[in-house]
Structure formats: C-alpha cells, structure tokens
C-alpha cells in the first residue's frame, strides 16, 4: 500500500491539534461560523481509521436524515482531499463508510432513536470513537449518556483509548452542553472545552470574512455566537419558549393551508424564503423549507422559489422592493406574488400576533432557527427593555411574518387598517 502523508500541520489549524495529540475522553468544540471545526473533525475521523486498526466511528446528529448531506459528504470530501478517497467504500443504504483494507466502519445515526445506536456491533475492531455534530440540536442529555455508556469494552491495543468529539454553535447559554463540558464546577472529568472562530480557518474567501466582521458592527448579539463563538444569550428573546426544532413529514401538513414569505437582501443581508403550513385550530405553524442566501439576483430568486416548490402557493414579499416584485412576476413569471402589507406599527403588530402561535421548525430550516435564537427586544439608553424588537437578525422572521399575513391581517382580500390591526391583536388578549 502507498504511504499516506499525514502532515497535520498542513491539514489543520493549531486550534485543532488537541484532536490529534490529546487522549482526553471528551473534546467539546464550540465555535463560530466558518471556524472549520466540521472539516477538522472529518480529518480526525479519517486519520484515526488509518492509524489505529481497532477504531470504528459513530457519527451522531439529532436527526438521521440530516447526515447524508452534512457529515457523510464532508468525510467523503476530506478523504479525497487527503488522497485516500479510493481506500474507502461509501454506501447510502445503510449510510456507512468502510475502510476497505480492514473493514473498519463509520456508522451514521440519529439521536431521535438513541436505543438503536447502542446495538451497533462492528465486525472488525471496536466502536470507540464518536462525533456529535451540530450538538446544539441534541435535546436530551440522558439520551447522550445512554449512547456514551454503550461505548465500552477492552481495546485490543494496550495504548488504545476511547474518545468523543462534540462540535456545535453555542446559540444559548442555557443548553446542557455548557454545564457538562464548559463550566468548571460541573463539567465532566477527563474533558476539555474549546472555542474556535473563523480566524482558525485559513480557507475562507475574503467576502465571507468581511460579512462576518460586518456583523460585529451591525448585529453584535448575533455576532456573539456566529463570529466570536461565544455563548449566546437567552434574555430578551422575542419568541422565547414558542419554537422548537423537530423533524416532521410532509404528510403531517398535507391538509394544512400553506404560503411563502419572501424578504429581499443582497450583499450582506440574505434573501430569505420561508415555506410554512399553518394549523389554525391548534395555533401551530410548521416551517418546512427555506432558502436563505446572499447575492441572489432576481432570476435566481425565481429559480429558488421554483426549486423549493413555491409555484402554486401564495407568495407574500417585502413591499419595499416593488421593482423586484414586478420583475419576479412579469419578467420571470412567478405566479401568485403579492406585496406584503405595510402601515403604522405593522411590524410590532405582526410580531405580537405571531406570538400567539407555536412554531415547529424542520431541521433543514437553518436561517430561521438561528434568528429565533437571536431575535431580541431592543433597549433604551439606560439599558431598559423596550416592547419593540431590535431591527436586526430578522430577515427570515420578516419573511415568515409576510407568509402569515393572510392569517393575521387580511380580511376579504384587503389588508387591515391600523385600528383594525390594533383590535385584532387586542382580540387575542395580547
């Protein structure tokens, strides 16, 4: 077999050296966007299989269906980037990666069925490595412990060791991950908590770096997590306790009315398209799809609406961009496109009405979930909370508000007047 050059100094930033020179049982990496933590962990997965013939990996996310386009594809790309891609076999049913020379495997599972994970028995070697990706999604500390307790047994190498890597964006300081891996008084023994940022990734393009650095100025609350990799704050969240991430099938929402909201951005702000179904009886909104991208031109927005099956649904778009609405409709043929209503206090009234619903966010909907975790009320000069949301980190939320407009403030095909909206909110007891 050809010799493989594992020059870690060339492969990863020094911030990730502990993955390769530490035998700590738990390495927890919280980090900003673009910090390279997923890519570095994928290198760790491949390297350990090449170096240690007893190592098999378990890769876990909360939802198994999110693995194929994230961890699985990342590990496969890394294997080829390292020049060893042909040494592995990649199967999608079941979702596994096998090291051909020895039969060692990478198993991909979802925490939504933790008990099934505990029954994995490799034919070659031992299941002694785990990677929990997007660990902020993990809902249950007890389920995590159940899986970890299944990683046990005597290793065939007397110098062998068990190890678990945990990677995530720390959107709230109330998550159990903080207590278990980062707080000095309560963190697990034989563990280390680390923080990385975009500065630990030398492979980002300049435009992306500029957009992150601009966020420090324009939206420090969101930048706290997305740029600095610090713990987010739960205080002052507009939709606190009203949203959850949960996987659901389209069959569940098949009979519910649906609509699309569209908020326009370009260079530094994303264009957000939010696809929702609403259960008026139980006052639950299901957000089942999304596009959330910068630098979209008009034709590309039309293409996104088509690719996400928005044609045939009513689309409500930011009425401040009449030119874009006209182009989308007349030039690119987007049907059922409506300008969203505007008026005195329409934003705060819309948000107040939205607070009378609960929100179930599908795992594929990333932008909205981030905004739900960072959208806060504004403060006055003395630091007192106001009743007005801060106008930042709200592009997906604005798009969702537009999509919900027919169920809030449109009656008989007409957008309500200011007084009618005031009364509609009062009728909810808000």
Broad CATH class of the largest domain: Alpha Beta
* Quaternary structure classification: single chain
The CATH architecture designation of the largest domain is 3-Layer(aba) Sandwich
Unreliably modeled segments: none
- CATH superfamily heading of the largest domain: P-loop containing nucleotide triphosphate hydrolases
Strand content: 15-25%
Q: TL;DR?
A:
With 430 residues, the protein is of the alpha/beta class. The protein has helices at residues 8-11, 18-21, 37-51, 68-81, 114-117, 141-149, 176-181, 206-218, 220-226, 298-307, 322-331, 346-354, 366-372, 395-408, 418-427; strands spanning 26-31, 55-61, 88-92, 95-99, 105-110, 126-132, 163-168, 191-196, 243-245, 258-263, 271-279, 284-293, 315-317, 337-339, 358-361, 377-379, 385-389, 410-411, 414-415.
Describe how the helices and strands are arranged.
Layout: H1 8-11, H2 18-21, E1 26-31, H3 37-51, E2 55-61, H4 68-81, E3 88-92, E4 95-99, E5 105-110, H5 114-117, E6 126-132, H6 141-149, E7 163-168, H7 176-181, E8 191-196, H8 206-218, H9 220-226, E9 243-245, E10 258-263, E11 271-279, E12 284-293, H10 298-307, E13 315-317, H11 322-331, E14 337-339, H12 346-354, E15 358-361, H13 366-372, E16 377-379, E17 385-389, H14 395-408, E18 410-411, E19 414-415, H15 418-427
Keywords:
2 domains; Rossmann fold; 15 helices; Nucleotidyltransferase, domain 5; elongated; 19 strands; 7-stranded mixed beta sheet; single chain; 430 residues; alpha/beta; 8-stranded mixed beta sheet
């Amino acid at each position: 077999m050809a010799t493989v050059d594992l020059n870690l100094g060339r492969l990863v930033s020094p911030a990730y050296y502990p993955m390769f020179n530490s035998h700590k049982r738990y390495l927890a990496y919280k980090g900003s966007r673009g910090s390279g933590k997923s890519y570095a962990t994928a290198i760790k997965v491949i390297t350990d299989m090449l170096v240690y013939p007893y190592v098999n990996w378990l890769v876990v996310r909360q939802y198994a269906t999110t693995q194929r386009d994230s961890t699985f594809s990342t590990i496969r790309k890394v294997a080829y980037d390292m020049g060893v891609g042909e040494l592995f076999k990649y199967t999608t049913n079941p979702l596994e990666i096998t090291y051909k020379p020895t039969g060692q495997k990478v198993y991909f599972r979802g925490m939504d069925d933790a008990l099934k994970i505990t029954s994995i028995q490799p034919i070659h070697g031992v299941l002694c490595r785990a990677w929990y990706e997007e660990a902020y999604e993990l809902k249950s500390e007890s389920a995590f412990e159940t899986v970890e307790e299944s990683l046990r047994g005597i290793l065939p190498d007397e110098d062998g060791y068990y190890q678990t890597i945990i990677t995530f964006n720390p959107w709230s300081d109330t998550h159990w991950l903080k207590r278990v891996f980062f707080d000095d008084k309560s963190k697990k023994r034989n563990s280390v908590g680390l923080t990385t940022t975009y500065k630990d990734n030398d492979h980002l393009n300049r435009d992306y770096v500029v957009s992150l650095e601009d966020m420090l100025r324009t939206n420090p609350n969101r930048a706290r997590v997305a740029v600095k990799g610090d713990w987010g704050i739960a205080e002052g969240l507009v939709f606190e306790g009203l949203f959850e991430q949960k996987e659901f099938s389209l069959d569940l929402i098949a009979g519910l009315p649906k609509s699309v909201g569209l908020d326009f951005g370009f260079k530094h702000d994303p264009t957000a398209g939010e696809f929702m179904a609403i259960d008026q009886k139980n006052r639950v909104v299901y957000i089942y799809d999304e596009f959330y991208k910068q630098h979209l031109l008009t034709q590309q927005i039309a293409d996104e609406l088509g690719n996400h099956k928005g044609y045939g649904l009513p689309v409500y778009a930011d009425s401040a961009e009449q030119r874009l609405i006209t182009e989308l409709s007349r030039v690119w043929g987007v049907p059922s496109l409506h300008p969203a209503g505007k008026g005195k206090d329409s934003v705060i009234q819309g948000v107040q009405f939205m607070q009378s619903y609960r929100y179930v966010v599908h795992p594929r909907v990333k932008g909205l979930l981030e905004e739900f975790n960072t959208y806060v009320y504004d403060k006055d000069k003395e630091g007192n909370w106001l009743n007005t949301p801060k106008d930042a980190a709200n592009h997906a939320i604005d798009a969702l508000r537009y999509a919900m407009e027919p169920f809030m403030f449109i009656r008989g095909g007409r957008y309500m007047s200011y007084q009618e909206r005031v009364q509609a909110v009062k009728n909810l007891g808000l």
